[in-house]
Amino acid sequence: MRAITDGDPLLIAHRGFAGENPENTVRAVEAAAGSGGADWVEIDVSPTADGDPVVCHDAALSGRGGPLGTPADRGLTDTAGLVWETDTATVTDAEVLDSGETVPLLATLLDAVPEHVGVNIELKFPEGGPVGDHAGGTLDPDALAARRAAWRPFVERVLGTAEARDGDLLVSSFHEGALAATREVSNVSVAPLFSEAVSDGLELARRYDAAAVHPPIDAVRGTPFFDASRFGDADVVAAAHDAGRAVNVWTVETWYEAARLESAGVDGVIADYSVG
């Protein structure tokens, strides 16, 4: 991934431009990489009960917007159950958002991405479900060792599939355990995701020699979206650039947001729409 922008920010298709396409599906990444003009596609990867990496954002196949496993106004798929408790055949038969598309295996989706388009894999859950590391935060050594061990089998399976593909690859996660396991087994580019303390995100980037950091849109100073009540004096763009790291911001919905973020110096916009 380009370290610091030397032109327009990279256009990173969030779940394959989830505002336009059935998210995290083969159709979505084909459209994003084609007429959508994405430089990169961002996808979410979780294990099935069989340990196979599949591309799915939600923990629950049938729920959206509520606690794990609870009903929501609209299901992500037509199938019930938690991804990591459901066998691979059932998960990959699940229809996504009434689109005719089904939840793909990671290998199947990667085959649909042209070589010139980069892939950002967000690691969501290890085998057995959620882990104890605070999303976006740092861990003490004992907790980190346990979490790294919990993540490693799944990380090895994901990278065994993803690193066989030609083209740029970036692994991101809210979980330090996932980043630590990734760095333990590979030199692939990584990026911490965070939604709260900028200092934690920058510390994770330092620990794992990250190529980039992925803050939320309201963490970027110098834009109308900056939330000083949450982020105070932090200047994530300046701090990351001083360390030679890119800043890719989530989640961008409009051309106006993209333009303001470009003016603030970000290197990539992780967008739900082809806003370029």
Provide mean pLDDT, rounded.
92
Distance between the termini: 19 Å
The quaternary structure here is single chain
Q: Fraction of residues in helices? A: 25-40%
Number of helices: 9
Top CATH class: Alpha Beta
Which structural class is indicated by helix and strand composition? alpha/beta
**Would you count the extended β strands for me?**
9
What are the low-pLDDT stretches, counting only 5+ consecutive residues below 50?
A: 66-70
Q: Could you tell me the strand content as a percent range?
A: 15-25%
CATH T-level fold name: TIM Barrel
CATH superfamily: Phosphatidylinositol (PI) phosphodiesterase
CATH architecture: Alpha-Beta Barrel
Q: In total, how many domains does the architecture comprise?
A: 1
What is the makeup of the main sheet? 9 strands, mixed
Q: Which word captures the global form?
A: globular
N to C succession of SSEs: EHEEHHEHEHEHEHHEHE
Radius of gyration: 18 Å
